[in-house]
Amino acid sequence: MLRTVLCYGDSNTYGQTTANKPDDRYRHDVRWPGVLRKLLGLDWLVIEEGLSGRTTVSDDPIEGAEKNGRSYLRPCIMSHKPLDLIVIMLGTNDLKIRFNKTPGEIAMGVGALITDIKSMPAGVDGRIPEILVVAPPPTAPDLKEWAPVFEGAYEKSRSLALHFERIANAHEAHFFDSALVVKSSNEDGFHLDAQAHSDLGHAIAEEIASIGWPG
């Protein structure tokens, strides 16, 4: 049986590089969904849905309404269903000072996404897909040229995992704290380097295996 996982995230799912490159994106086999695809093998279809700048539930007044993760989630799911699993890794962009959100409010945005997923018969045979919430790693203390955009983000980012875990538990979703295996690159302060993508892909593969899928 071929299972399908949708990886729904921001630039760290898209594969934004930490250093300037011509296309500013890691290759398919370097970014974590690609690593996951190789590890899961032919039994899984891994769908990448990463967008740089994506928030949980907010239109971005500077980068545009298309950055709102909630607005796009429903049509995205409808495009790819039936789904066995949806991995949500968002929250870093919500730390931008222009959104003025607390860690708890960012987690509530993730909760809204979970609620939306559960309201749709997007799983196999009309069931609800499994949901894995992945807390992004804290930003680095030094956000380089991004510091004015992410003013106060470092302190807030360190408590995101705690709030995300509470929300995931309240909604009976799976949870993983990515900070257990990766950290934000010191190159720019909030993106993952190539090694971190590899480590995260391996960790999420283990989390997927632990869910306990029926034969």
TrEMBL record:
Leader peptide range in chain numbering: none
Whether Hydrolase counts among this entry's keywords is yes
CDD domains linked to this entry: SGNH_arylesterase_like
Name any one GO molecular function.
hydrolase activity, acting on ester bonds
Start and end of every SGNH hydrolase-type esterase domain?
7-197
Keyword check for Hydrolase: yes
Pfam hit, one: Lipase_GDSL_2
Keywords, in A-Z order:
Hydrolase
**What protein am I looking at?**
Hydrolase
